Amino acid sequence: DAGVTQSPTHLIKTRGQQVTLRCSPKSGHDTVSWYQQALGQGPQFIFQYYEEEERQRGNFPDRFSGHQFPNYSSELNVNALLLGDSALYLCASSWRLASGGVRTDTQYFGPGTRLTVL
Amino acid sequence: QQPVQSPQAVILREGEDAVINCSSSKALYSVHWYRQKHGEAPVFLMILLKGGEQKGHEKISASFNEKKQQSSLYLTASQLSYSGTYFCGTKVDDKIIFGKGTRLHILP
């Protein structure tokens, strides 16, 4: 059973550029959440996708956008990169309803994409 | 809304016990505990869904005091493999907000 996968592993960009990060959820999961983790900090919630729509959003500017595809995979796009965008970007997947109809919020994280903005 | 974790860091010798606390100024509906090793993704430990619930995972257990709006993670007879940063997360409006983490270092 494949876990959450993310690509690429590492990325180096310069200020002003745009970047796209990708995430494939764990098998059977339908919800994808994105987090930004700065060095020495906890993961900060960016947004969550379910049924191909953004359902929740954290305190991040519109430069951060995303998409979810019919196969539940997701992309995170960041435009006009700033030095402060350098961080580990984590994708976490979960499922809205277990087979028994009980909602669960357990999230499983992918290995992350390390973004460095120069 | 971000939960507050204490202590910020702990250094233990192998075999010693530790307690990590997580508190919130708002009502807690669920508490999620994760461990992250350096350079790796956070790994799910357990979720507590209601007040008074206690759970265990190997020698790691947790409690959830809904009235006090806090949860505690207990590490018993710590092993070298327990080293890492522990995060608690609380559910707010259908999203999980994580604390800043507690760094745990186990010495042999």
Structure description:
The complex is a heterodimer of chains A (118) and B (108). Chain A contains no helices and eleven strands. Chain A has one domain: Immunoglobulins (Immunoglobulin-like, Sandwich), CATH 2.60.40.10. Chain A has 118 residues and is mostly beta strands. About 4% of the residues of chain A have low confidence. Helix content of chain A is 0%, strand content 48%. In chain A, strands 2, 4, 5, 6, 9, 10 and 11 form a seven-stranded mixed β-sheet that branches. Chain B is mostly beta strands and 108 residues long. Chain B has one domain: Immunoglobulin-like (Sandwich), CATH 2.60.40.10. Helices cover 0% and strands 56% of the residues of chain B. In chain B, the strands form two sheets. In chain B, strands 2, 4, 5, 9, 10 and 11 form a six-stranded mixed β-sheet that branches. Chain B is globular and about 40 Å long. The chains are: A mainly beta (118), B mainly beta (108). Chains A and B meet through β5 and β10 of A and β5 and β10 of B.
Biggest interface between protein chains, with counts per chain? A-B, 22 and 21 residues
Could you tell me the number of beta strands of chain B?
11
Order of H and E elements of chain A: EEEEEEEEEEE
Helix content of chain B: under 10%
End-to-end Cα distance of chain B: 37 Å
- Low-confidence regions of chain A: 98-102
The whole-number mean of residue pLDDT values of chain A reads 91
Alpha plus pi helix count of chain A: 0
Indicate the CATH architecture of chain A: Sandwich
- The H-level CATH homologous superfamily of chain B, spelled out, is Immunoglobulins
Provide the β-strand percentage band of chain B. over 45%
Sum up the overall morphology of chain A in one term. Answer: globular
Structural class of chain A: mainly beta
- Helix coverage percent of residues of chain A? under 10%
Which structural class is indicated by helix and strand composition of chain B? mainly beta
Number of strands of chain A: 11
Assembly annotation: heterodimer
Mean pLDDT of chain B: 89
How many structural domains of chain A?
1
Reported CATH architecture of chain B: Sandwich
The gyration radius over C-alpha positions of chain B equals: 13 Å
